[in-house]
Design goal:
By secondary structure, the chain is mainly alpha-helical. Helix content is about 80%, strand content about 0%. It has one domain.
Length: about 450
């Protein structure tokens, strides 16, 4: 048996490894971003605001149901897997991986069933045409595109961020090919939904294949037939940790997922299409922010596990958050100065009304940049519930206000809600991280 060990490094090297991992994953994300821009150009021009809005609403509905029902295990794999690595216990790590896979796949099955059962009830309120209603049922399988956190967690644990970066290209490449074929063949909304579904399935298969291949190389027969043992007993508190961390992830992402659905419900599919195009520029910040939290988490978990959970961890989080916020400033400035040109470039003149909203949403994403590293730190310190509490507070304050703001201010109300929620969540997370790390 051979374990691919990543020795716990000194706090001084944590920042370098965090941004090293971020760079590897962002390499794939940069390529994915360019590819996604290409398929967005094709989709918006081929479908127009209304049908593109329907495409967005169906996909967002499925990912929202998935985000609420699924049960990702990557944080538990990283946290408890780091302990197994430190003990050079391949059997314990194998049992943990098998446990995480079972939990996640069962959660994914429940999410598929929930999405399929609720689609006929939700679709009419979101303005889906009959064709979309029929396709929404098989499209529930797109849930699988998000059911892949266990292999992702293992790749993070063994520092294979290069493979994570490569995987980021899978779904955009399939979407681009599918969008091109659908546009050329004039298949309309149906063709684009099929392309998006195929991309999700390829995303699922690709990452599980990578994770299984690497785990078999490192763990050998231990992965297939680990020594008898109970993964819950191996990892005390794992169920409580899973419940808290998953609730936190759900609440963190809920506003971004629910907002397009609320816009579609209140203002119709065309407004949802405009909102989606405005959100596109925020991906320049949102994706690196989430990746930053994911790449920071293994290092912060190692700092906490090796007794460096106080000042050293606090300094690392502070520097990561400061660098991330600083990197956002040029992006916010560019979007503010050239918002109209950006919208016309990526979506065409039919989506011009999205320009001003784009500026506000990008600002909101920048304000939220402190969140992912703070969430990673609190989880590494064994307090995912604190992060959940901060995100729940921000959501409870601002999500119920979204319909009222949309009614009063139209589409601009979505921007007001996004800024308020992002600022509140970030401030709460920063305060809680400093409090917890000071007590470590």
């Amino acid at each position: 048996m051979s374990l691919s060990m990543v020795p716990p490094g000194a706090p001084a090297g944590a920042l370098r490894r965090i941004f090293g991992g971020l760079g590897l994953v962002l390499g794939g994300k940069a390529g994915a971003g360019l590819i996604s821009l290409a398929y967005l150009v094709i989709a918006t021009r081929a479908l127009g605001p209304h049908d593109y809005g329907v495409l967005v609403l169906i996909h967002t509905y499925v990912t929202t149901v998935c985000g609420i029902v699924e049960f990702p295990a990557w944080q538990a794999v990283v946290r408890y897997g780091a302990e197994a690595q430190r003990a050079a216990d391949g059997h314990r790590l194998s049992r943990l991986l098998r446990f995480g896979a079972r939990v996640e796949l069962l959660g994914g099955l429940a999410a598929i069933l929930a999405a399929a059962l609720c689609a006929p009830l939700v679709g009419p309120h979101l303005g889906w045409p009959e064709t979309a209603m029929v396709l929404a049922l098989p499209y529930s399988l797109a849930v699988l595109g998000s059911v892949r956190s266990t292999p992702a967690g293992y790749l993070q644990l063994v520092n294979r961020f290069d493979l994570l970066g490569l995987h980021n290209l899978v779904a955009p490449m399939v979407r681009l090919a599918g969008a091109g074929i659908a546009a050329l063949a004039d298949w309309g909304l149906k063709g684009f939904l099929v392309a998006w579904l195929l991309a999700a399935l390829c995303e699922f298969i690709g990452l599980w294949a990578m994770g299984l291949w690497l785990a078999r190389r490192h763990l050998g027969p231990d992965l297939r037939r680990p020594e008898p043992g109970d993964p819950v007993a191996d990892n005390p508190g794992i169920w409580r940790f899973l419940l808290a961390s998953n609730a936190d992830v759900t609440l963190t992402e809920l506003a971004g997922r629910v907002a397009p659905l609320v816009v579609g419900w209140m203002l119709g599919p065309a407004a949802a299409g405009l909102f989606s195009v405005a959100q596109r520029a925020t991906m320049l910040i949102a994706q690196p922010a989430q990746i930053l939290g994911n790449t920071a988490y293994p290092e912060l978990a190692r700092l906490a596990a090796s007794g460096h959970g106080g000042r050293a961890l606090r300094q690392t989080v502070g520097r990561v958050a400061a660098i991330a916020l600083g990197a956002c400033i040029p992006i916010v400035a560019i979007v503010w100065l050239f918002n109209a040109q950006i919208v016309e470039l990526i979506a065409g003149p039919a989506f011009a009304d999205a320009a001003q909203l784009m500026v506000v949403l990008v600002l909101a994403r920048a304000l939220a940049m402190a969140g992912p590293p703070c969430t990673a730190a609190l989880t590494a310190l064994g307090r995912p519930g604190w992060s959940m509490g901060a995100n729940l507070t921000a959501s409870l304050l601002f999500l119920p206000a979204l319909p009222i703001l949309l009614d009063q201010f139209g589409l601009a109300g979505a921007g007001i809600q996004a800024v308020g929620q992002a600022l509140t969540a970030s401030l709460l997370l920063l305060v809680l991280t400093w409090k917890r790390s000071g007590a470590a």
